[in-house]
Amino acid sequence: MEFNVRRLAADAGTFLSRAVQFTEEKFGQAEKTELDAHLETLLIRAESTKHWTEKIMKQTEVVLQPNPNVRMEEFLYEMLDKKVPTRANNHELLGECMIDSGHEFGPGTAYGSALIKCGETEKLLGSAEKEFIHSSAINFLTPFRNFIEGDFKTISKERKLLQNKRLDLDAAKNRMKKARVADARSAELNSSPPLGEEYVAHFSYMLSFLHVRWLKAETELRIAQSEFDRQAEITRLLLEGIGSTHAHHLRCLNDFVDAQAAYYAQCYQYMVNLQKQLGSFPSTFTNNNQPAGSSSASVSVPSAPPAASLPTLPPNQASPALNELRSTSGTRKARVLYDYDAASSSELSLLADEVITVSSVPGMDSDWLMGQRGNQKGKVPITYLELLN
C-alpha cells in the first residue's frame, strides 16, 4: 500500500510538472526544446499519410457501396463482430425482376425472351460486382485499415510519449536554471559571510541545501535528456517505416486497379454477348422506340427482315410437304428460321431455331399457317418456317 501511495504521488508530481511546463510554454513564459528538422519532416509525412489514407478508404467504400444506409449497417455488424447477412445487390434484383416478367409475358415471345436474356446477364453482372467488392476489400481496404488501426496507433502512442519526455526535459532544464541562479547567489554571499555563530551555522546549512538541490537538478536533467534522446530515436525509427508503408500501399493500389480492370472487362464481355443474343431480333422490334429517320450512335445489331419483305411462294410452286399439309388438313412440325414479333393478337411470336406445330386452316391466306406452341396459338408466316419430315 505504501508503495502504491508513493507511486501515485510521484505520478501526480510528474503530471503536475508537465502541466505547468506546457502552460508556461503556451504563455511564452518557458523555453521549449525543438525537435530536429529530420524528425519534424517525418512527423509531417506520417500525419499526411494518415490523413489521405483515411480519405482514400472512405471514398473507396463509397464507390464499392454507394448506399450510405447499407454502409452503416455493415459498420455496425463489424463493430458487433457479427457476420454481415448475404443480400442480393441491385444488378441481381434487376435480373430477378426481368426474368420473372419475361416468364410472365412468355419465354416464347420475343419480348419475354429478351427480358429473360437481359435478366440472366444482369445476374452475371451482380455476381461479378460481388467478386470485385470482395477482392477490393481484402487486397486494398484491409491493408489501409490495418495501417490506421495498427501502425499509426503505435506511432501516435510513441509520439505522445516523446511529447511527455520533452516536457520532462524542459521542466528539468527550468529547475536546473533556477538552481544555478540560487547557487550563484550563494557564492556571492559566501564571499562575505554574516557575523555571529548562529548566522554562520544557518548560512552553512543553506549553502549545503542549495548545493544538494543543484546536484539533484543536474542529475534529473541528465536523466531527462537521456530518456528524451532514447524516445526520439524510437519515434524516428517508427516514422522512417512510413516509406515501407507507402511501398506496400502501392502494391495494394496495383491490385485494386487490376481488380477494376478485370471487373470492367468481364462486364463488357457480358454485355457484348448479350448484344449478340439480342441481335437476332427483327429491326421492327429492337428499334420500335426510335422515331422515323432518326440516327442512333448505339451499336447496331443484325436482324432478320420482316415477313412482308420476304419472297412468298406461289401456290403452284409450293413444296410437296406444304401441298400435302394443305390437302390433308393435318399437322406438321416446323423449325423457325428467324425471330418474328407478332403484329397483332391473332399472330404468334416466334424465336429462331424453336420447333412449333403448324397446320393449314381453310380460307387462310396462302402465305400463312396456323402455329401452335403449347397452349399458345396464332398465325405464322410461311417464309419464316422450314417444315420438318
Task: Give the termini separation.
Answer: 106 Å
The coarse silhouette is rod-shaped
The amount of helix comes to 55-70%
Please compute the radius of gyration using only Cα atoms: 44 Å
Helix and strand pattern: HHHHHHHHHEEEEE
Going across the major beta sheet, what is the strand order?
A: 4-3-2-1-5
Largest sheet: 5 strands, antiparallel
Relative strand content: 5-15%
Mean pLDDT over the full residue set: 80
- Helices, by number, come to 9
Low-confidence segments: 283-317
Classify the secondary structure makeup into a structural class.
alpha+beta
Quantity of strands, as a count: 5
Model description:
With 389 residues, the chain is of the alpha+beta class. The chain contains nine helices and five strands. It has helices at residues 2-26, 37-64, 68-79, 90-105, 110-191, 197-240, 242-278, 283-286, 320-328; strands at residues 331-336, 355-359, 368-373, 376-381, 385-387. A five-stranded antiparallel beta sheet has the order 4-3-2-1-5, with helices on one face. Strand 3 (368-373) and strand 4 form a beta hairpin. The longest helix is centred in the middle third of the chain and has 82 residues, at 110-191. The chain is rod-shaped. 17% of the residues are buried.
List keywords for this structure.
single chain, 389 residues, alpha+beta, 5-stranded antiparallel sheet, 9 helices
